[in-house]
């Protein structure tokens, strides 16, 4: 039995002193209204209505129950209106995690515009370069830059493809030569993204789609792409970095692309959130906003 439906039927019967009038109000037949109230009485094991051939009126118990039902139904109605209002004017806190460089260089401006568009959302943005546990660390959504995987435990939505290039300063290339093939990198100083001096390889794909692990002679390591960019600009070595970090440096000729016939495997900027958050209006709005913001070609070089 739908308890709320039965309570509504009972309230309308009392309001209109009859089953037929209540049925017209609820757009139900008289028999259906009668059945709903009878089920309610059976469930409560109490008589709620006095029935005569001329009118229907509540018993003393029915009158007390009627008043409680009116309060309950009003609360339900208010809750429904509140949820509907949130669909139109979303409110509340949205906790977002994102990588440091992408966050400061490109996401910050987008987030500022998002907050202006939705002023009643309090967005808390935390930046770091590690994969976090959303629920354990109290975030609603995380922005990651990685390879999208079908078995990802999070619900994911792509925001933008991330292009990476191999680049170096003109001064470095003048001094040490331009690598012609990936194998030449073993004779160059390379700058590697990572926390530790391990796995000194880059994965590269040639124009025919063949993928290989290219051995490196690493000069320096960092877990921050902006640090590697500055080292590359200073002529320390060759770096493989996203264009959202080195785009402007390439435009200004501080850095030059090399090995342009080779590229690393594709990665994506994507939003991820727990499956039980899929109905969150705030997350849906943020996802749609960022997808629209980053759809313009060349955003990473601006």
Look at the structure and give the mean pLDDT: 88
| CATH topology type of the largest domain | D-Maltodextrin-Binding Protein, domain 2
* Helix coverage percent: 40-55%
List the strand order in the largest sheet.
Answer: 4-3-5-14-6
* Morphology: rod-shaped
Strand-pairing-aware structural class = alpha/beta
The CATH class of the largest domain is identified as: Alpha Beta
Approximate strand percentage: 15-25%
Low-confidence stretches: none
Output the radius of gyration. Answer: 32 Å
Taken together, the total number of domains comes to 3
Helix and strand element order? HHHEEHEHEHEEEHEEEEHEHEEH
- CATH H-tier superfamily of the largest domain: Periplasmic binding protein-like II
CATH architecture of the largest domain: 3-Layer(aba) Sandwich
Query: Number of helix segments?
Result: 10
User: What can be said about the biggest beta sheet?
Assistant: 5 strands, mixed
- Give the CA-CA distance, first to last residue: 60 Å
Number of strands: 14
Can you describe what's shown?
This protein has 302 residues and is an alpha/beta fold. It folds into three domains: 3-87, Arc Repressor Mutant, subunit A (Orthogonal Bundle), CATH 1.10.10.10; 92-161 and 267-301, Periplasmic binding protein-like II (D-Maltodextrin-Binding Protein, domain 2, 3-Layer(aba) Sandwich), CATH 3.40.190.10; 164-258, Periplasmic binding protein-like II (D-Maltodextrin-Binding Protein, domain 2), CATH 3.40.190.10. 42% of the residues lie in helices and 25% in strands. It has helices at residues 3-16, 19-26, 30-44, 60-88, 100-117, 134-137, 170-176, 225-233, 243-251, 281-293, and strands at 49-51, 56-58, 92-98, 121-127, 141-146, 155-162, 164-168, 189-193, 201-205, 211-215, 217-222, 238-242, 256-258, 267-273. A hairpin with a 4-residue loop joins strand 1 and strand 2 (56-58). The longest helix is centred in the N-terminal third of the chain and has 29 residues, at 60-88. It is rod-shaped and about 105 Å long. The two termini are 60 Å apart.
